[in-house]
Every structure is written in structure tokens, then in C-alpha cells.
Amino acid sequence: MTYLLDANVFIQAKRLHYGFDFCPGFWDWIIESNAKGTVFSIEKVHDELIDGSDELSQWAQARGDGFFLPPGDSIVPSLTRVSAWASGGDYDPAAVSLFLQVADYYLVAHAHANQFVVVTHEIPANSSKRIKIPNACHALGVKVMSPYDMLRTEKARFVLASGVKMHQTGLEPVSAV
Fold it and tell me: Which of 88, 106, 99, 113 is nearest to 41 (CA)?
């Protein structure tokens, strides 16, 4: 599978579970998976991430077009399809307008055009006030999952490097030998 990551995956990783200072393995895994051609994001997400002047902004700036995919001619039919779906739904005009201006629209279109899996922390919601990524994905036949599902599917492992060995299950620390 090839994955496209939403901005909230990076932002929540930095703020919560995978801070650069205590879980560099997550960020290394993201970079290594990108090098293998399985994990990407899009240019519009890059633009959102570099808005700040923090560690995440610097990390995003260090990635290039090989990580943050630029929009190309190949996604134009999907942009049209996603736009038609959003405009033809039961969403308030303001919700449609906002959706068509933000990275979410391009993320879904990129995934639709390339048969990628969208990875996001968003969950579906039946609201006319905001278009959620999972709702758009489900309506357009695009697979969507949480970052945790992606990590489990890909069997990612972030192992302690502080001289502590883990049992085979990886659940209990044991003394280093």
C-alpha cells in the first residue's frame, strides 16, 4: 500500500505520542518508508506545516518533492470529481468553499487519482457544517485509515535504544545482558 499523510498526522505526532525529542524512531520510519515509496504527503500539507517556526516546520522544510508531492495534471480529473461530490452533497456552501480551499481537497484528490490510502486522525461525521476527509474518501471509494492502523499494517516498531532489551513480544522490558 502507498499512504498519503494528512497534516494532523504530523502535528499530533509532534505534540503528543512521537515527539522529536523522545521518539525519533517514528520520524526515521516515516523518512525510510518514503524512500521505499510507501509514505508521502502533498505540497499543500507541506505549506501548512512550514507555517510555524518550530521543529516540525524545519523537518518539513528538509523534505522535498519526493516526500511532499506537487499537484500534477494526473490529479485534475480527480479534483473535478471531488469538487463535484462536495458541491452536490448536503453541505452548507461555506463548508464546500472551505473544503475546496484547504489541503484536504487536494489530499483526497491525490489519493483518488493514484489509488493511495489517506492517513488521518479525522473521523467521519454527519454534519453539513464541515466536510471531513473520511466522509469524502468513503464517498469516492478512497481507502482511509488512522496513523495507528497504518503503523500496525506496516508492522512499524520503535524499539528503545537505551540499553534495555525487550522480550520477544516487545511488551516487557528485561535487563540488558
Answer: 106
Q: Are the C-beta atoms of residues 137 and 25 closer than 8 Å to each other?
A: no
CA–CA separation, 111 and 97 (whole Å):
20
Q: How far apart are CA 165 and CA 49, in angstroms?
A: 35
* Identity of the residue numbered 4: L
- Give the model confidence (pLDDT) of 30-47 as tens digits: 999 999 999 999 999 999
- Give the three-class secondary structure for 13: helix
Question: Residue 25 carries which side chain, given as an amino acid letter?
Answer: G
State the pLDDT at residue 64. 80
CA 46 from centre of chain: 11
Grid coordinates belonging to 100: 475546496
